[in-house]
Amino acid sequence: MNNDELIQREYLNKAKACVEEYKRLIGHEPSSCVVTFGCQMNARDSEKLTGILKEAGFTITDDENADLVLYNTCTVRDNANQRVYGRLGHLNSLKKKNPHKKIVLCGCMMQEETVLSKIKESYGFVDLIFGTHNIFKFAELLCRMFESDGMIVDIWKDCDRIVEELPTIRKFSYKSGVNIMFGCDNFCSYCIVPYVRGRERSRKSEDIINEIKALADDGVIEIMLLGQNVNSYGKNLDEDITFAKLLSEVENIDGIERIRFMTSHPKDLSDELIEVMKDSKKICRHLHLPLQAGSNKILKAMNRRYTKESYIDLALKIRDKIPDIALTTDIIVGFPGETDEDVDDTIDVIKKVGFDNAFTFIYSKRTGTPAASMEQVDEDTVKRNFDRVLKVVQETARNAVSQYEGKVMDALCESVNEHDKAMLDGRLSNNTIVHFKGDDALIGKIVPVRLVECHGFYFTGELCRNL
Ligand code: SAH
Ligand code: SF4
Ligand code: F3S
Fold first, then answer.
1. Cα–ligand 1 centroid distance for 76 (angstroms)
2. Is the link from the previous residue into 61 a cis peptide, with omega within 30 of 0?
3. What is the Cα–Cα distance from 330 to 322, expressed in whole angstroms?
4. Ligand nearest to the backbone CA of 106
5. 362 and 379 in contact (C-beta within 8 Å)?
6. Residue of 132, 190, 229 best suited for mutating to test ligand 2, as the one with most atoms within 8 Å of CB
7. Which residues does a 6 A CB cutoff place in the pocket of ligand 1?
8. Cβ atoms 283, 262 nearer than 8 A
9. Which atom of ligand 2 is closest in space to residue 184's alpha carbon?
């Protein structure tokens, strides 16, 4: 254990005493609820925060009536922020009924000064605020919160340390995210992530491998390696390692059956990675390769550092080497200066690559990013172009996904279907979802499923028992 880890262990003991006292005050077992907004990175952080809450003595629930509610926020687009403000109003009314209720905010949104001043001014009922760089200090911050009456705020601008060994409560028993790097140095001109997540830093491969081995020992069969740009993994390390080499090492870990990763930046995707994926038995047949835009003018203004042509070449090369791979992407419509012709370029790429799925976002202006001071596109044009892009995405996705109709493929049973309790939700290696009738005892297992009918992005299917 390093020094930070030792200090936090001590604070965790202190936090236990604080929670004991809190329990006496409220007269029952204190409950906590962690709500996660945003990406997989935040989801993984939430598992660590939940782990600390549990060790400190809180029970864990999904119900926001809990004694402590923590929002782990996202600020990648403005609608993420608006959702948090909306829900905070509701938390305030719950706190009026339960005056000992504790409200905690953390995550990416809290790294923004404008957000912080707004919360200090208009949401004074919040008890504790911290950011993305100091979640490892959560036990210490909990102690400070219990010892004080006012709002505790602790935000760091950046952090070059990586703190391992935090207690963690996983949301799923059979799958887990694993951070391989933190932060981002790419500074795409629309994106706030580098400002709120700090500089790129990779974890040592040994730490990553040990974590995955421990997860496998604990019954995890699928892992997702997490980073804003996994293809640049290792660049700041002393070791001789690349992302492709790391994947090969992960492949050798017994018990792990599926390996996924998020996200790949097209500019850094190596031939070495394509080869490793092609030969792998465990790396899933899915690559998420954010395009963002198809026009070279817009790509340049976005600072993406690839062209329409190089993206198409790369995507087709991958499809050629790994024919059963699913390619998915992110697209932004309405970046400053984007014309109808630029959007035609985006549509052209979608058609040429034939994505299996694409997340299409309306550009959202983020304070402090270079694109915020560029000339914005009017709303009607954005709306019209968004609909055009969406229509093509839906067509190509149905085309790409439906080619598997009738086939039998392995699905990892992930959960009971929300709408029909007799059905399970399974995930194919290529990330497509299939709904099929099955017993919840199958959750966490990989089973063969016949893909009976394609419904655009997903299938309905049936379990094959005797193969
Ligand atoms: N690191 C990942 C993306 C992280 S953010 C990558 O580079 O691919 C996830 C997605 O949100 C991005 O791919 C982008 O499509 C979208 N996004 C980011 N900033 C945005 C903004 N200001 N407006 C709209 N969409 C945005
Ligand atoms: Fe944002 Fe670009 Fe970094 Fe992705 S690579 S997080 S889009 S700056
Ligand atoms: Fe959102 Fe932060 Fe992830 S801004 S997308 S939660 S890195």
1. 7
2. no
3. 21
4. 3
5. no
6. 229
7. 76-77, 190-191, 193, 228-229, 263, 265, 290, 292, 330, 332, 361, 363-364, 366
8. no
9. 3
Average pLDDT, rounded, for the chain = 96
Q: Residue 247: pLDDT band by 50, 70, 90 thresholds?
A: very high
pLDDT interval class at 2 (50, 70, 90) = confident
The CB of 265 under 6 Å from ligand 2? The reply is: yes
Rounded CA gap, 3 and 163, in Å?
A: 9
Q: Which of 39, 193, 292, 366 to mutate to test the pocket of ligand 2 (most atoms within 8 A of CB)?
A: 193
* Residue 138 confidence (pLDDT): 96
CB 336 within 8 A of CB 375: yes
Contact 112, 78 (CB under 8 A): no
Q: Judge if the beta carbon of residue 191 lies within 6 A of ligand 2.
A: yes
CA dihedral sign of residues 176, 179, 183, 184: negative
CB-ligand 2 contact for 186 (6 Å cutoff): yes
Q: In what order do the strands lie in the sheet with 258-262?
A: 175-179, 222-226, 258-262
For residue range 60-102, what is the model confidence (pLDDT) as tens digits? 999 999 999 999 999 999 999 999 999 999 999 999 999 999 9
How many residues would you count in the chain?
467
Q: Give 289 Cα–ligand 1 centroid separation in angstroms.
A: 12
Please write the tens of the pLDDT for every residue from 369-384.
999 999 999 999 999 9
Which pLDDT score is estimated for 457?
Answer: 87
Dihedral of alpha carbons 457, 462, 463, 467, sign: negative
Q: What is the pLDDT of residue 467?
A: 52
Average pLDDT of span 354-363: 97
CA of residue 184 to ligand 2 center, whole Å: 6
Please give the sequence-ordered ranges of beta strands (E in DSSP) within 269-391, or none if there are none: 286-288, 326-333, 357-362
Q: What is the mean pLDDT of residues 300-309?
A: 98
SS3 content of the chain, % helix, strand, coil (to 5): 40, 20, 35
Mutate to test the pocket of ligand 1, among 109, 226, 361, 386 (most ligand atoms within 8 A of CB): 361
pLDDT at residue 162 tops 90: no
CA–CA separation, 137 and 130 (whole Å): 9
Beta bridge partners of 450: 408, 462
Q: Which pair of structure tokens corresponds to residue 268?
A: 């850094």
